Amino acid sequence: MDGDLGDFLRSRRARIRPEEVGLPSHGRRRVPGLRREEVAQLAGVSVDYYIRLEQGRGPGGPSRTKSGGVSDAVLDAVARVLRLDETERAYLHAVARPRRQARRPDRPRVRPAVQLMIDAMDRSPAFVLDRRMTVLAWNPVADAVFGYSGATDEARSIPRYVFLDPAARDFYPEWPAVAAQSVAHLRILAAHHQDDRELTSLVGELSLKSEDFRRLWADHQVKECAYGVKRLQHPVAGLLVFPYETLTIPGDGDQSLLVYTPEPGSETEERLALLGSWASSPAR
Length: 284
Fold this sequence. Notes:
By secondary structure, the chain is α+β, with helices and mostly antiparallel strands. Helices cover 45% and strands 11% of the residues.
């Protein structure tokens, strides 16, 4: 991920004008934004130190931690200069100081109690994602909306569906925003799980097969998609609009629960009820 660290820092340097941080803007600049020596000056580190950080060459000296990584103080100073938000700051720490994690099962299981909980949500589509954004479990109403029970493991990968299945562009009326959010969240996951070979393989596969993915990945945007509103164009029920929330499942930080809840009395609630009836009908 060293290349990701350098590309991320360069992309953030490029978006800041010198005058925004009190530096003169005169003189010819080959690239937009701050120069590396300017970031180093403002962060209070040597130019050589910052260059080595941006190149992923492991800067030495007193600012290293006992474990050999870059100190919090240096990363926080760089984050301040580059005006990173909280999500970007956390990403910088994760990608600059990767931590080796205990090996997890390749096919994680959802606890039975979690399945019981989502099954009890009879009016809200709910499903569980793993650290690769693959759907592991779902309730009947989510199956009626997304058709997970009839999909393969690969088809239940949200990034693969968004970028490799042409149907996704019809299913998501706001596909460009959904695509950007998916990549921004996937980049955070990749930073926190740098030793996950399947996750690395997924990024490589999407980069090879999707020009849209390559373009968005190169932007180095990082963003948590924990809540919001999702619009879906279902082939049977029509337009569905859901406020959604994402929750980390206690005891397993690698799994998250997404719940789509229709507004009471809305057209989406009515259409969802009809869709559920249609999905459970023997005539189907």
